[in-house]
């Protein structure tokens, strides 16, 4: 099987969907001509293949980029637009939250908005808090949006293709750290359904629910815990909205113990939602209180030791697992 | 450019209808509990929506804002369904989800109405992009107020539309007020049309109380757009004769200013022109008025007799 | 004691603070000359009292309004700016989230940003989802911000005065429904500290944690439940950030049962955070799983029966209470 | 207006220092793991920051963006603390919280640096508002690029500043690129200064590689601002001689274009003028260069020898 970084997998998904459906186009800052000549990046080479009519470099204008998607989607096109870094979601948020998410409802179901907003995210680049700020919880709090956050290249390809074919607005958040980790990706055209979590590792002693950039740490921790005789089940959420409660709840039913791990800051992060759902619907399964392993409630600092302190890692998870098992 | 007679008549008809519609709402919304939400009307501004929409084909698209009733009626929206939606009834064009403020009528290519000031512009850019992408021979008209022209979205949208030469007309309905703020209190630029220069786009000023002038300017901008020459910023100067909404006491609008503009009312102005040039007779005018009266009465009856949506219907239409 | 609507109480707080400190100014759309000539509104009469130098009507430009606050606060002024309706927070969100909240951190603590952003919120006006969308969870998820949501006129006055004197950026969210409910307000100059929840009613059988517009429903429900012999403790959170965990946890320790009630949509709402905190730190006190009584995951619809369906009410809470007690 | 000799010398000094600083960073950031984050330099654009800041008093404020090093050095920021912050060390001006991108130096009235493109503008409006509110005899200069001029925040900020006649200079550093996009690919307007008309504000174009011209234009705009005549949009035309950041291969920038602009380098240009007009000798120039060399060497040494912050320090400085 081919081995691809997540950027390449996304590239393949974009390419296949653009070949398949002439209504698909991409737009954003540097999606055509880029300051990166790097084939690991998601939109590399698409301009050459599809031309400037379908690969639209835009000015630095996030509201216009998102509005472009809203208007074009209403007309039946399938825009896939890019917001360069997650903190700039703010600048596009009126168009996404008040329009992409709500206009269908406001039309009484007459119009639909089949658009995808791809957002690069994730700390770990020393770029600081105006480039690194995980805001998936914002999107997840807005009915009308779907929210996808893949953690493997194969999932990214299949999920993005599903997102593009979905008739609803989808926020598709990519952790940049995963662009450079090569992983197996099926060659063929396949769809990974939105709304289905994936058990990336079976376990009987406790469950960790995670997504996006944290999967690697979770898998690493699971490996090490296994050596101590603790078997951790790793649930990769993949899509936050729609939320696959069933998979989470059955896992917790089995293990009786739950940790949620995400890179975003703790308070009012999406981990809280998982906690609430499990509390409401799986309380009786719980043998111990849930724990959250998350970024602390601070902006992401630039300096390497500080940034490392910020990003939750294998050790944090192992420690939480040991505590919860006791 | 000469305005075809049937267009002139059309404009007068939709203006009279819009006015009758608004005047009726003025009364209705005084009745406690009858009509929910804010009531935002365009009394005195009808030459804009009616002039613009007469210049468009059905396939042309409009994206409109909180002050939309005249635009939508002129574009051909069904008065019954509009009124029922304003009443928040199940039979409304948006099943009561929208109410008066976000009326969406995709059937007449008025698919998105937004009350977020300035938000019509980026959406219109997207809609016009689709027209260009598919090589359609149609344009998008984007309505917005003078206040909206101070939002960042205005700037991003005009820059992008000019850059890509999109077939869009940015229609600034300058009614001299943004909420309680007079034009001079929210910007230093003398004319909003001047802002076109910032994007190397044509900027045109037109008397917004002259439906014929609005029609002609729209036709010209539309032709430019269809010829691949990109967007135009078209500023229609008019006046908000009533308050921002119906609960606004207009304490900040000088009485004599209101009076002066009421005297410039676009409806008698067009009616007189048509009568003087023998396009219609004054009895035809009366017919138009009673026809409009009937349409609005019927719309009110339809709305009144329609049921409210069932509570659980609130859960529908979020996702496809 | 004087009886004031919340708008009037806020007006009094603004007036007192402007009289006290010449660095305090207010800005926003219609804060001076307004389309409302209504003394129940928060900024009524301030232009006349303080003049156009300190009561600044702005163009319809939310990013500029928030940027004005950020820049002026850095200089040592104490701006109190208004965002007219909560959904327009999106348009100001880059300035608030990426700047007001982060610039102090980015400066290594050299600069501070003593500003207040007042936001009108709340459903119930038939205005629809572009005017009614409760986004407190967004602000609560951004370290660097404090988030205040009063539910009584007296609290509003004391909390706003504290917010204005606080050296951090404070998001102060006002439920418009409370503008018209007259409640006793002490005449004198007093401060209600940020970060302290208030027990609005004592009870031993269960706890409801709520804030802002939902307090009324909670108190009403508590009254009715009491007639059935169920004593519900009502914790009014007042400030979401900093979160007063102690008050919540002691109440849950006492009652063993918890409901969180808020008007915002359920998924990823701030109720989830309360759930997570109690799960993590008060698991052993819980006799039953927590419940959330919230708006459903839909945009706020305009039509009265639909909007009523959206807004959580007394009956929803009573039902949840009865279920949780069983 | 004549430029005082000491100002001319000052400009040359800060330009030479900035260039040395940048050239050193070019080399340092090639060494894996030495300097975290992106490395964004203003090589070839030094006449802008140096010309502007020479025209300002210490009390005047600058608000700057991702390409800030030259602006900050010219404003008088301590090179040691800057370098240490770029290295993300504890002794950096922001204790390692900022790194290279958001350097804040309130000591020299450069209190906010933001990498959100376009975000400098609304903040500068707020800062200038405070100056007006307190009747200070100072101005705020807001730096931003040509790309930033397409953001909505540009528009809102300029409109508000013009409306209130705030003492702010909007300094557009037009280096012909925004990321990989050439100027003509991101806007249709020939000159960004043209956009001033949209706010009824003076718009001025200046040769951004001519420090003296930049100085003079800044002085004039500053005087207008101090006289209560409000903001100016000042466009400095220059060129980004290196990539957007140091990992950018510049594949989209024509080689001969880069070459041609390197030949217009502002530093020899000013040096030659000063030598020709006998303000400095060529040996003084050499002294300046070796002084700059020493300062930068010392800054590197300081940064290298400084410790990183302790991990738990990440928790500090969020709230007062
Ligand atoms: C983003 C945003 N800010 C504020 C408002 C509140 N608001 C509604 S209409 C309006 C004034 C708009 O003025 P203008 O654009 O001139 O349109 P007009 O009402 O005059 O037709 C304001 C401030 C809003 N709906 N959206
Ligand atoms: C809001 C936002 N969008 C995108 C980016 C990514 N980005 C950083 S610099 C840059 C180009 C800016 O161009 P310009 O304003 O001309 O400044 P220059 O880099 O040329 O100095 C972009 C797109 C950003 N930092 N902020
Ligand atoms: Mg107006
Ligand atoms: Mg540039």
Which compounds are bound in this model? thiamine diphosphate, magnesium ion
The low-confidence runs of chain A, each spanning 5 or more residues with pLDDT under 50, are none
Extended strand count of chain B = 8
Largest interface: A-C, 52 and 52 residues
List the helices and strands and how they pair.
The complex is a heterotetramer, with two copies of chain A (326 residues) and two copies of chain B (320 residues).
Chain A: E1 2-4, H1 6-20, E2 24-28, H2 46-50, E3 55-57, H3 62-74, E4 78-83, H4 89-100, H5 103-106, E5 116-121, H6 136-140, E6 146-148, H7 153-165, E7 170-175, E8 183-185, E9 198-201, E10 206-210, H8 215-227, E11 232-236, E12 239-241, H9 245-255, E13 258-265, H10 270-282, E14 291-295, H11 304-310, H12 314-325
Parallel strand pairs in A: 2-3, 2-4, 4-5, 5-7, 6-7, 10-11, 10-13, 13-14
Antiparallel strand pairs in A: 1-8, 6-12, 9-11
Helix pairs in contact in A: 1-7, 3-4, 8-12, 9-10
Chain B: H1 5-28, H2 46-54, E1 61-64, H3 69-75, H4 79-86, E2 112-113, H5 120-133, E3 140-145, H6 152-164, E4 168-174, E5 177-178, E6 181-182, H7 183-186, E7 203-207, H8 211-226, E8 232-237, H9 255-262, H10 266-276, H11 282-305
Parallel strand pairs in B: 1-2, 1-3, 3-4, 4-8, 7-8
Antiparallel strand pairs in B: 5-6
Helix pairs in contact in B: 1-2, 1-3, 1-10, 1-11, 2-3, 2-8, 4-11, 5-6
């Amino acid at each position: 099987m081919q081995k691809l970084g997540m950027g390449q997998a996304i590239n393949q998904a974009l390419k296949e969907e653009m070949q398949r459906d002439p209504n698909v186009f991409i737009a954003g800052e540097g999606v055509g001509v880029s300051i990166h000549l790097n084939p690991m990046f998601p939109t590399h080479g698409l301009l050459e293949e599809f031309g400037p009519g379908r690969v639209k470099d835009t000015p630095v204008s996030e509201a216009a980029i998102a509005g472009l998607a809203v208007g074009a989607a209403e007309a039946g096109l399938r825009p896939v637009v890019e917001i360069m870094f997650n903190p700039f979601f703010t600048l596009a948020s009126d168009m996404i939250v008040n329009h992409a998410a709500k206009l269908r409802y406001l039309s009484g179901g007459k119009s639909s908005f089949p658009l995808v907003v791809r957002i690069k995210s994730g700390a770990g680049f020393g770029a600081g808090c105006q480039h690194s700020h995980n805001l998936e919880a914002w999107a997840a709090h807005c009915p009308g949006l779907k929210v996808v956050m893949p953690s493997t290249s194969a999932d990214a390809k299949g999920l993005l293709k599903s997102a593009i074919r979905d008739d609803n607005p989808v926020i598709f958040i990519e952790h940049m750290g995963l662009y450079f980790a090569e992983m197996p990706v099926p060659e063929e055209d396949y769809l990974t359904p939105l709304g289905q979590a994936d058990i990336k590792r079976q376990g009987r002693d406790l469950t960790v629910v995670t997504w996006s950039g944290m999967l690697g740490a979770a898998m690493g921790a699971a490996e090490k815990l296994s050596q101590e005789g603790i078997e951790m089940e790793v649930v990769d959420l993949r899509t936050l909205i729609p939320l696959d409660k069933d998979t989470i709840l059955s896992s917790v039913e089995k293990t009786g113990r739950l940790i949620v791990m995400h890179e975003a800051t703790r308070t009012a992060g999406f981990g809280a939602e998982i906690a609430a759902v499990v509390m409401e619907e799986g309380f009786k399964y719980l043998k111990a209180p849930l724990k959250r392993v998350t970024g602390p409630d601070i902006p992401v600092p630039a300096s390497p030791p500080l940034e490392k302190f910020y990003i939750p890692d294998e050790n944090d998870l192992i420690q939480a697992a040991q505590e919860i098992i006791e | 450019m000469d305005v075809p007679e049937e267009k002139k008549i059309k404009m007068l008809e939709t203006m009279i209808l819009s006015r009758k519609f608004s005047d009726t709402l003025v009364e209705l919304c005084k009745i406690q509990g009858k009509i929910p939400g804010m009531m935002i009307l365009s009394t005195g501004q009808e030459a804009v929506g009616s002039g613009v929409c007469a210049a468009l084909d059905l396939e042309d698209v409009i994206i409109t804002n909180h002050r939309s009733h005249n635009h939508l009626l002129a574009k051909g929206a069904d008065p019954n369904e509009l009124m029922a939606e304003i009443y928040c009834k199940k039979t409304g064009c948006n099943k009561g989800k929208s109410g008066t403020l976000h009326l969406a009528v995709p059937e007449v290519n008025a698919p998105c109405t937004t009350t977020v000031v300035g938000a019509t512009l980026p959406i219109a850019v997207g809609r016009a992009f689709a027209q260009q992408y598919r090589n359609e021979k149609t344009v998008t008209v984007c309505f917005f107020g003078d206040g909206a022209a101070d939002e960042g979205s205005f700037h991003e949208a005009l820059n992008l539309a000019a850059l890509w030469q999109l077939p869009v007309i940015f229609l600034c309905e300058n009614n001299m007020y943004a909420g309680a703020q007079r034009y001079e209190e929210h910007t230093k630029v003398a004319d909003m049309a001047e802002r076109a220069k910032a994007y190397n786009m044509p900027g045109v000023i037109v008397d917004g109380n002259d439906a014929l002038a609005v029609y002609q300017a729209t036709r010209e901008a539309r032709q430019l757009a269809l010829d691949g020459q990109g967007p135009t910023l078209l500023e229609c100067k008019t006046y908000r004769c009533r308050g921002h909404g119906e609960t606004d006491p207009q304490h900040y609008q000088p009485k004599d200013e209101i009076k002066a503009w009421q005297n410039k009312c676009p409806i008698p102005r067009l009616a007189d022109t048509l009568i003087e040039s023998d396009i219609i007779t004054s009895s035809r005018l009366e017919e138009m008025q009673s026809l409009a009266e009937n349409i609005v009465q019927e719309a009110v009856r339809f709305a009144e007799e329609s049921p409210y949506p069932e509570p659980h219907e609130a859960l529908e239409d979020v996702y496809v």
